[in-house]
């Protein structure tokens, strides 16, 4: 008897499964609010060098003081990182005569003045992470994703070893602790450390939610469960835009998005451990108790499967044998799956976060961009629900990623003056990007056997978070060539999309329990 047959005995897809999925969707809402927080946490408002007061400035307006103290760009705006060595009073007579001698220009010497009309404070304004320190500002997102990368390896292994539920609760509790410590940061170093640790903790939440829900669902409803969970990510995307719009001070913004993790922790207590994992690890009494509970809630009071039957269902895992990440590369088919899925995950995450962290590059208000980017993901996921069940996982995954890259590439060619067209193409690209992300979560969890599923998800998530960590740093390449970041995102997405064609199809296939089912 396969576990899918056992689920049919408990009522298939009933009230029990629906309740589990909705409870697991609560922490899912909170994930994008942290993963995409960098857009608002580290936003850099317009700024210029602070000008020390001089007696000669007494009768001048602030605009005139700036005119004689700060050089201008060709478009007439004041430079953000430079000032004149001495006030250029002749510019009061003719401001168009900008000095061409760079020897009278220096970097800011007395700090910066920021425009606070949009943000009360961000980490950029708190610690002057601009100009020469701009790299540290972008690195904040990288530190977070380095934490997510480390957490993927840690929680992927631990949840296969000690169970899904225990590790999910641990990661939620740690998320609350480190999230609140981030909000209380008094230095950049403290923020960098606490955001890294928050990334470690949230990685466990991201990694465990989908497999835990999916392992309680039958074949016919696997796609539905994956899409439903993913839609709540989009809801979190839109909520982030609204919360960030209402809370313009970075300390309180961190508190506002971390608080809901407490509610998720309380709700997850009700969710049972994966019976599929319990059986695979020989814990048949606990599995039988949860299955009995499932059958009763689904109205199947005639459930009569005994613990002995479950014991015979256990995989032929040798006593004392423990699987690890090395197991993903020991056998030929698993090795090919691991290498290809790793490349696909890198491309998906790299392009997704590359687009998501460039809210001001498409001609829309950043709050509106964040909201629209979240909103467009929902119809994209609805379409993927149909496509994954019609054309399969492999084709859906490959083409969603390739089209993401092509949309990014198209915006390199479209002139900046075509604001509306650029916005439409960017929104389409974001939709394809989210479609690729939605597919890869479900697809990967179907590729790996139960005894290695969380190790597989941990490994692929590790590779994905490398992509997420590199994505914000690629923006710094615009100093080499303005379009180089977009070219990089485009090329990686298209290449990794073609790699997806090398993976096996999993549509309407039983979830593998042991390595022999894969080979």
Structural notes for this entry:
It comes from Sagittarius serpentarius (Secretary bird). It is found in: Apical cell membrane; Basolateral cell membrane. There is one protein chain. With 519 residues, the protein is an all-alpha fold. It folds into 3 domains: 1-37 and 131-317, MFS general substrate transporter like domains (Growth Hormone, Chain: A, Up-down Bundle), CATH 1.20.1250.20; 47-114, no CATH class; 325-518, Up-down Bundle (Growth Hormone, Chain: A). The chain contains 21 helices and 4 strands. A two-stranded antiparallel ribbon has the order 1-4. α9 packs antiparallel against α16. The longest helix has 29 residues, at 134-162. It starts with a helix and ends with a helix. Residues 316-320 have low confidence and may be disordered.
The major beta sheet can be summarized as: 2 strands, antiparallel
CATH architecture of the largest domain: Up-down Bundle
How many domains, as an integer?
Answer: 3
Rg from Cα: 26 Å
Assign the CATH superfamily of the largest domain: MFS general substrate transporter like domains
Amount of beta strand: under 5%
**CATH class placement of the largest domain:** Mainly Alpha
Shape: elongated
- H/E element order: HHHEHEEEHHHHHHHHHHHHHHHHH
* Secondary structure category: mainly alpha
Note the total helix count: 21
What's the β-strand tally?
4
- N- to C-terminal separation? 20 Å
Give the helix level as a range of percent. 55-70%
CATH topology of the largest domain: Growth Hormone, Chain: A
Instruction: Kindly report the spatial arrangement of strands forming the biggest sheet.
Output: 1-4
Flag low-confidence runs. Answer: 316-320
Mean pLDDT metric: 85
Subcellular location: Apical cell membrane; Basolateral cell membrane
Transmembrane segments: 139-159, 166-186, 192-212, 224-246, 252-271, 337-355, 367-387, 399-418
Domain Major facilitator superfamily (MFS) profile: 87-507
Family: Belongs to the major facilitator (TC 2.A.1) superfamily. Organic cation transporter (TC 2.A.1.19) family.
């Amino acid at each position: 008897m396969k576990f899918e047959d056992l689920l049919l005995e408990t009522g298939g897809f009933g009230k029990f499964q629906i309740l589990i999925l909705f409870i697991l969707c609560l922490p899912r809402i909170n994930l994008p609010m942290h993963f995409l927080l960098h857009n608002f946490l580290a936003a850099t408002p317009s700024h210029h060098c602070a000008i020390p007061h001089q007696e000669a400035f007494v009768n001048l307006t602030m605009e005139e003081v700036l005119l004689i103290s700060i050089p201008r760009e060709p478009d007439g705006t004041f430079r953000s990182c430079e000032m004149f060595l001495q006030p250029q009073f002749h510019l009061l007579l003719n401001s168009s005569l900008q000095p061409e001698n760079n020897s009278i220009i220096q970097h800011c010497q007395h700090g910066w003045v920021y425009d606070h009309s949009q943000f009360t404070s961000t980490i950029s304004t708190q610690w002057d992470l601009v100009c020469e320190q701009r790299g540290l500002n972008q690195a904040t997102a990288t530190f977070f994703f380095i934490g997510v990368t480390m957490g993927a390896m840690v929680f992927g292994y631990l949840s296969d070893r000690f169970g899904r539920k225990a590790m999910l609760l641990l990661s939620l509790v740690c998320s609350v602790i480190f999230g609140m410590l981030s909000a209380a940061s008094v230095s950049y170093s403290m923020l960098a450390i606490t955001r890294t640790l928050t990334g470690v903790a949230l990685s466990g939440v991201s990694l465990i939610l989908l497999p835990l829900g999916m392992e309680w669902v039958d074949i016919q409803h696997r796609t539905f469960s994956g899409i439903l969970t993913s839609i709540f990510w989009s809801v979190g995307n839109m909520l982030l835009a609204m919360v960030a719009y209402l809370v313009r001070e970075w300390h309180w913004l961190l508190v506002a998005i971390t608080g809901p993790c407490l509610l998720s922790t309380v709700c997850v207590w009700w969710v049972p451990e994966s019976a599929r994992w319990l059986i695979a690890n020989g814990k048949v009494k606990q599995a039988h108790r949860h299955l009995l509970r499932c059958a009763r809630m689904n109205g199947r009071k005639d459930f009569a499967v005994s613990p002995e039957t479950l014991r015979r269902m256990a995989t032929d895992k040798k006593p004392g044998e423990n699987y690890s990440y090395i197991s993903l590369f020991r056998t030929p088919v698993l090795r090919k799956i691991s290498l290809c899925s790793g490349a696909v995950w890198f491309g998906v995450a790299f392009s997704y976060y590359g687009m998501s962290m460039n809210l001001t590059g498409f001609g829309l208000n950043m709050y509106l961009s964040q909201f629209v980017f979240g909103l467009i993901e929902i119809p994209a996921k609805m379409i993927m629900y149909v496509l994954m069940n019609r054309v399969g996982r492999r084709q859906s995954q490959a083409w969603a990623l390739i089209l993401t890259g092509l949309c990014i590439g198209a915006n390199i060619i479209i002139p900046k003056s075509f604001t509306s067209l650029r916005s439409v193409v960017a929104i389409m690209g974001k939709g394809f990007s989210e479609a690729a992300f939605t597919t890869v979560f479900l697809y990967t969890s179907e590729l790996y056997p139960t005894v290695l599923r969380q190790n597989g998800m941990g490994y692929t998530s590790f590779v994905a978070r490398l992509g997420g960590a590199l994505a914000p740093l690629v923006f710094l390449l615009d100093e080499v060539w303005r379009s180089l970041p977009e070219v990089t995102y485009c090329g990686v997405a298209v290449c990794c999309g073609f790699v997806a064609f090398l993976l096996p199809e999993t549509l309407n296939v039983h979830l593998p329990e042991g390595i022999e089912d894969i080979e």
